[in-house]
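Handout, tutorial session.
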Amino acid sequence: MSEINLNKYSRQVLFWPQGEKNQHNLQEKTVSIIGAGALGTVLANHLVRAGTGEVRLIDRDFVEESNLQRQMLFDEQDVRDKLPKAIAAADKLTRINSEVAVVPFIEDANASNIEELTAGSHLILDGTDNMETRFLINDVSVKNNIPWIYAGVVHSRAMTATVIPGVTPCFRCLFPVFEAGHGETCDTVGVLSTAVHIIASYQATEALKLLAEESDYVRSEMIQLDVWKNDYSTFPFQYSLNPDCPCCQKKTFEYLDKKISDKLISSLCGRNAVQITPNYTSSADLPAFEKKWSRLGKVQRTPYLLRLNYNDKEISLFKTGRVLINGTDDADTAKRLYSILIGN
């Protein structure tokens, strides 16, 4: 059992119902945070400061100026350096608490890799901004018996709920059908940073209850709030169990078992961008591509990615072979550019 730094965690140990035992429990746990943006940075900040044993940060994107209004671990230098969010967040968090193993993954969590990324986790936290990934997390949670905590925020409204396989209904009990392209997003109606921080703090608090093994205190309702209009309500999530749920009752994992071609192509909601991810082990030779692309436009290489400005598009090639094309939301256009610039 690991030693407790009583000086660092003294106020928390005083709070815990079982004192040092709860802190030991926390320090033995591994948490995977899917998404290191607005929600994810708040979650990671709380869990790392609390002394969680290992915190995995899984995010596909890099820091942009528009993130700074609400994504608490980033600053203007991260924007200038065009750092991947997972790396920028991990750097900050390691300086905050070097006793925690902060493990960054510059990855898009999808059906081909999410089980590997979350293997050995005691808890999965939702820091995403899209429903399809949440359905995927739900599949992984139920299949591998890993609790997860959902949260969503847009405008000044937010909600969160805790899913514990075999104990609570699952996410698909509450949202049986996923419909792409519906509803508001932060890119269309904006978002208030305080709404993000409040709901993520609720989410992190529930996480601490589970990780410290004080599950009797875990909230069984979904919280819904509007911080601008001063609305707060709870939804009896525990009564939403669907006896015909394809996921938690019939154990079919539609999103996890999705057939993926040799490349996963996805438009990023509200971003005017398309992501292309090879569905096989790949490693991009960034120096070689830099030499090839330098004839086509302005190229910038960082330790993590290569960026090209080409025909009014910004193309980012990551070391894993994943490509992010900004400036179009058309999959066919993105595939043509991929073929021209990457090949195969």
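The second record follows below. Compare its token runs with those of the first.
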Amino acid sequence: MIDISRRLTPGHPTWPGDAPFRVEPLARIARGDSVNTGELRTSTHTGTHVDAPWHYDDAGARLDEVNLAAYLGPCRVVTVRAEEGLVPATALAELPARLPPRLLLHTGQPAHWAEFPQDFAALAPELVREAARRGVRLIGTDSPSVDPLTSKTLPAHQACRETGILIVEGLNLSAVSDGEYDLVCLPLPLVGVDGAPARALLLPAGTLPEERA
């Protein structure tokens, strides 16, 4: 089992303008309380997280309307490199014509972000469409977004909307070899939201029950 989630340590950076990540102490045994508790405050897009379609499409499904099965099952991890800031469709050129339903892209992000990345590899919309043609229904990336930091039109998100591909961002793929695995990605079961932090794991291929068509 390989944990590909980012650890949410104190001060973990969030998208510029989003709520900062904080865990505030509440009850403490050392102060005479019966238990230790804390209050969690953060953005729905902190660290490793899923984007519900409603995040980038006002008519899209909210997180609780997305079938959880989409986040479980066969996947392929592929190391890719950006050209002028975008991972091109040619990054898939040497891969089989038919891919597993889940494609995780290792762009070279480190395991820990001391500061929020300002310059990261985003995805060309043509790559999203080519992945969809090869059977991909979920794209994951170790970058904080499939689109550049300053993008307002979000072409990669819109390509995912057009093709029905779901998005996982902020993965930690720094210690993962390319190849086929089973993905387990479990977002928090929040209702009516645009996304949520997730715990993501890779298991040996074939660990999970075979998917039904």
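Points raised in discussion: The CA atoms of residues 109 and 142 lie 6 Å apart.
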